[in-house]
Structures are given as structure tokens and as C-alpha cells.
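The protein record quoted for completeness.
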Amino acid sequence: MNEPAAHLRRIRMWLIFFIVCLVLSGLTAFPLVTELDWLTGALKSSPLPDVMPGFMEWVERCREGLVATEAKYPFVLYGTDWLAFAHLVIAVAFYGPYRDPVRNIWVVEFGMIACAGIIPLALICGPIRGIPFGWSLIDMAFGVFGVIPLAIVRRRIKRLEALTAPVAVSGPALASLR
């Protein structure tokens, strides 16, 4: 396999990984109450409540809030449906770089900017919404870990671009071609 083809293959593997993560992240935003029911049950049957009681209290509080919201104001959860949809739409956008990485590098750069934007969002909105700082750190980790595959992809796209760019011929070399 030649070097440009190897770069393209690696770019596509990283993009598939990133797309799958986005899709899974989006799909998990739909059944929040069910997921928190499962998580609460799993955590209660583990040693975690004794080791980290504050974390367990937070998970139970989130579950109670979602159950109450779903029962009385289910339309509020429509916001998380839109969150899920946004993840799926953004995942579709990464088909462009999959198909033609050099031409669509801007999508990768957009994704990197979005990952960076998670950090100020968590730092600003987390305290406003009463989110514990530890949980905000978990949210920020999505941006930090999300940017890693995108940075790898961007670096590989730049290398692919350099490998496939037409060579400019000028000066004595151009004269010898005539």
C-alpha cells in the first residue's frame, strides 16, 4: 500500500471511531430516565455508595429530577431529544471528511472548535445549573478526549495533502522540460 493510501485508511479509521462515539453519545440522550434507572440500580448493588456517597446522592438526585420532570413536564425532556438529534446530525457531517478529507478538513476543524467549546460551557453553565464541579470535569473530558482523534485526523489530512499536492516546477527544471 502506498503512503497516501495508508494515510487515507488511517484517517477513515479515526473518523469512523469518532462518528461511532458521536452516534452513541446522541442515542444515549434519548432514554435518560431509563438509563438513570439502570445506573442507579447498578450502583446500589456495587460498593460505590459506601466509597463515594456524594456521587451516589448526585446520581439519585438526577434520577429523581428526571422522573419528576417526565411525569409532570415531559415537554422539558424534548430539549434532550434535540441534543441527541444534534449529535446525530454532527456525526453525519463527518461523512464529508471521510469521503474527501483534504477538501473537507474544515469539518474536522469545526469539530475541534466544538470540543474546545465544551470547556467554557461546562465552567459557566455548570455552576449556574447547580452541577457539582466533579461532574463538570467529566463533561469537560468529553471535549478533551474528543479533540484527540480529531487532532490526529487533522495532522494526517495535512500530511496526505502534502503527499498528494502537485509538484511545482520552475526555474532550470522547467527549462529542461521544454
User: Anything to note?
Assistant: The two ends are 34 Å apart (CA to CA).
